[in-house]
# Entry
Amino acid sequence: MTSPAEDTSSVVPTLPKHLVDRFAAIVGARHALTDPADQAPYLVEPRGRYHGRTPLVLRPGSVDEVSHILALANAERVAVVPQGGNTGLVGGQIAEKGEVVLSLGRLDRIRAVDPTSGTMICEAGVVLANAQKAAAEVDRLFPLSLASEGSCTIGGNLSTNAGGTAALAYGVARDLVLGLEVVLADGRIWHGLDTLKKNNTGYDLKHLFMGAEGTLGVITAAVLKLFPAPRAIETAFVGLASAEDALAFFDLVQERCGGTVTSFELMARIAVEFSVAHGENIRDPLTTPHPWSVLLELSSGTRENLRAAMEDVLERGMERRLVADAALAESLEHRAAFWRLRDFVSEAQKFEGGSIKHDVSVPVAAVPAFIAAASVAVQALVPGCRPVPFGHLGDGNVHFNVSQPVGADTDAYLAGWDAMGEVVHGLVQKFGGSISAEHGIGVMKRAMLARVKDPVALELMRTVKHALDPNGILNPGRVL
# Structure
């Protein structure tokens, strides 16, 4: 039986002119885009897998304008797709069925920064890199860090519960938020910008909207947590013989370096080779190739002894025959070079033809076994395909991407996306993992979610959806 939250048959698929005019009157004609050329950047996502169509792209400049838009959309049964920086990778932000696109890019003010309380209030359209910069200007750290931080936005980060390279130390996006401002489907505004670290007054509503991908409400602003800026950072690029050695080295690093471990990024050799081959000003940090690499970063609030701690853990790793070689960053530029290589891994795969991508997580201890099993399985399915596993080992988050065989037809290879997904995600379940670690469900994994999620949990999700969006206007067909 289809639940009310899933029934979008009452939603208007196209807009008559009088409704276009009413929406345009809310934001002003120049921010109501109807020309296909103006709409184009909002209708395709980074991988080019999802392409949309829409009668209207709306670019509100305030929370009140968002409120008026949703009130009208709800009254007229007009479906709306919220969109941030349009960097999402599962199709959740693309208007596939002619919905109105609600772009939050103009809500880009940083409303307040309070270094003493360790908080910052950012609107949804603030680019992540700008939020990081604003924190740094008052000697604080906002630790969410992604390869797309120069274009992704705070609203999108929270709506997808982004993870990133510092989640090992600071948690994922939802762990970095104290309060939210959210516009509900009927246009009401929840003023939840609470800056208190202790507030035990009933349900913690903010967690409903983070990770919900715009299906329950539109996040328009957030209170973000700030942390003391590190006084010392040490970065090393480490070569290892196996993923099992990397896991054992991670245990050693945790044991010896404790709370100073900020990042522990695992890369198969092929990932390093792709970045070096296709990236500008990227070179291999080690003179000898190794089957696996780790980008290890330590940070501390004091300037003392961090270099010694890094040298000590690398030396002990070599003594235990876990570390084959290592390079330590000797300058900020050296450190930046290490991170350029890591951050370019996803982009580099485009130069190698089609890439079928899987953002999954398994228990940390199971990462090497999962990678080995998944590599065998996909190569049996598509002989000659090239697994490119990399990711956040300390979180158990593996980006198990698979590049096409050399010389293969790209379209034919990508046509097998779902079949390969069945194989990989089947193994994820076997290892007790999740089919989505940090990218969300969107359109791509919606059908699969219904098969892997606990039935009671799914029914609760549908109940919440219907309660908050009874007319099904908010991002219909995503997640559920």
Remarks:
- The longest strand covers residues 232-240.
